[in-house]
Write a structure and sequence with these properties.
Two copies of one chain form a homodimer. The first copy, chain A, has three domains: 44 residues, lambda repressor-like DNA-binding domains (434 Repressor (Amino-terminal Domain), Orthogonal Bundle); 132 residues, Rossmann fold, CATH 3.40.50.2300; 130 residues, Rossmann fold, CATH 3.40.50. By secondary structure, chain A is an alpha/beta fold. In chain A, α11 links the parallel β8 and β9. Chain A is built from twelve helices and twelve strands. Chain A binds a DNA duplex through α2 and α4.
DNA sequence: TTGAAAGCGCTAACAC
DNA sequence: GTGTTAGCGCTTTCAA
């Protein structure tokens, strides 16, 4: 490995001078130093630099699963935004496991300058750990309930509004038997979307009975099982709101397996868009948001803090929008929709 | 920040003893040291450790785009596999830009212990850079043509076989006018899949005319445009093989926009599966491969090298399999399929 | 403007 | 088993 001392020797100056030149200061021997650097193909060791300065030029992104297109886009946005400031992005998947998340945060907190985290639960210990280590933390997509989250910059979306818009759309179409497949309620988007649906339905006097409130886990299989359960009900709903993309995929598979035709027999709205959603038959109506922008914004907030910005934490809420495609229609006239036996 | 010297002072021993204890050696004062560590909430600085040992416990994953579900899965597999050895994964997107890729590799090569790369082109300079720096490199999904790639472990899939299987399937169904939407030919999967299709067709005496060979770029819009071009031909093909998932999405959109019914008027096979592929109507027939396994295998090869394994480079080729769903049928009888005017 | 030298936190000889 | 010490590559006083 070629070190700064090699360059200094070759250029006939001290290491201090080379270091100064590297930091952009004017030095007499700039040319000789440049020549030496080029000949030796020297790159400063960021490790040594970090040891001295404390800056690591690294940020950790901790998300449930990059394989989820939403988080893939978030990561993409954050990574792209990190380049301007020459930061590097460590990626970690928690698989929605709070224990794993804590382990990651603890291990990482001393090795990065900042952390972007989609917390697994709303009673998350990451803020305490990060604060103790003096490492800036930004929440993305989810916050935590307690005031342990005070002082943490946050980028959310208007889950409540998006979910309410989905409910409104269905109510306006004439639906009165509305079901919701909800994500974990100890999670910001899980809770807010659920409450968004419930709130809108309450406001419009279309109560959602207990059996239409299906608690699930943001996973494909959860969506599949809950849709199956809904279809097996004595009086099934005429429409369903699925609260994230993975569960929506599961719900769609259940619908396909049970040969339920959408939207004739059952209407469906998903939260979060999917690449192929417009190509399904019918094209899927969804609540959309700009995931790349969310990631990029989170990174920008973090970089501001790393540049020394102080002041109280900011919480930014991005808009969502209902994209109406073809998966919703008025409820079937006979009032006995969607009940089927399984087929092989 | 609390350093090893603080722990040593508190435990009444030297820093060397604390260091030994940390590395697992038996020391008399283990208990006192543990107590001090706990009270001070001490974590060893990985930066200092790296400076000393040269090991950074970091690996760079350089892929075209995490937003592509294939690469998202590769990254997931690699990240999961990295945990066993306590390595951390830096993520970079090249956006298929060779200049950006080079810049990333150069910047990263001295700050990581190893690199996993899906090279942008087949004449890639990464191996030279990595070799000069003495950093192990693993190619994933793509190799390079020249022997500059000698000494680089590689994890590929049987692109040729997969593409040939797709062609065979179509020929067996009776198709004689087969078109292919190819990826960049200076890319391993681009070239191999293209040649796989061509080779099988040649073997079966079903030549593919020039106008049915559509060169594209692995991007959605490329697939869209090329499908449009095919449909506009005087004599359009009766079936199309699309050589990656993004282009397949574009092709499907073109088909939808032009109201071409699949598979009645045109059959379609995609390379790489998509989450919703089974839910399309018709469900999409694709060539599949295990992306998570690919990523995990690449990381395992890399970790072996980092553990000191020597010996010549290994090149592993994973299987692909044709998943027949519903998007292929015998060609239309009238022999004049798929030609349409655009509709709004 | 420049060089000498100290030191960031940790590890590995080396001597005890 | 343990302490002393040197040094990884770099930055940054402090003098000159």
């Amino acid at each position: 490995m070629v070190a700064i001392s090699d360059v200094a020797a070759r250029a006939g100056v001290s290491t201090a001078t080379v270091s100064r030149h590297l930091r952009g200061q004017l030095v007499r021997s700039a040319e000789a130093i440049e020549a030496a650097i080029a000949e030796l193909d020297y790159t400063p060791s960021s490790v040594a630099r970090s040891l001295k300065s404390g800056v690591k030029y690294a940020v950790a992104m901790v998300v449930p699963d990059v394989t989820n297109p939403f988080f893939a886009s978030v990561v993409k946005g954050a990574e792209t935004a990190s380049r301007r400031a020459q930061y590097n992005v460590f990626l970690y998947n928690t698989d929605e496991d709070p224990a794993r998340e804590q382990k990651i945060i603890r291990a990482v907190v001393h090795n990065v300058d900042g952390i972007i985290l989609a917390p697994t639960t709303e009673h998350d210990e990451a803020p305490a750990i990060a604060r103790k280590a003096g490492v800036p933390l930004v929440f993305i997509d989810r916050t935590i309930a307690t005031d342990a989250g005070d002082g943490v910059d946050t980028v959310l979306v208007d889950n409540t509004g998006g979910a309410a818009a989905a409910a409104r759309h269905l109510i306006d179409l004439g639906h009165r038997r509305i079901a919701v497949i909800a994500g974990p309620l100890d999670t910001t988007p899980g809770r807010e979307r659920y409450e968004g649906v419930l709130g809108e339905c309450r406001r419009r006097r279309v109560p959602i009975p207990e059996q239409y409130r299906r608690m699930s886990d943001f996973r494909e299989d959860g969506g599949y099982q809950q849709m199956l359960a809904l279809l097996a009900l004595e009086t099934p709903p005429t429409c369903v709101i699925s609260c994230n993309n993975s569960m929506t995929v599961g719900a769609l598979k259940a619908l396909a397996d049970m040969r339920v035709s959408v939207p004739e027999e059952l209407s469906l709205v998903g939260f979060d868009d999917l690449d192929l959603a417009p190509l399904l038959s019918p094209p899927l109506t969804v609540v959309r948001r700009d995931a790349v922008a969310q990631g990029s914004l989170a990174m920008r907030l973090l970089l501001k803090r790393l540049e020394g910005e102080t002041g109280k934490a900011r919480s930014i809420t991005l808009d969502t929008s209902l994209t109406v495609r073809g998966s919703c229609a008025p409820p079937p006239a006979d009032g006995r929709p969607a009940r089927r036996k399984a087929q092989r």
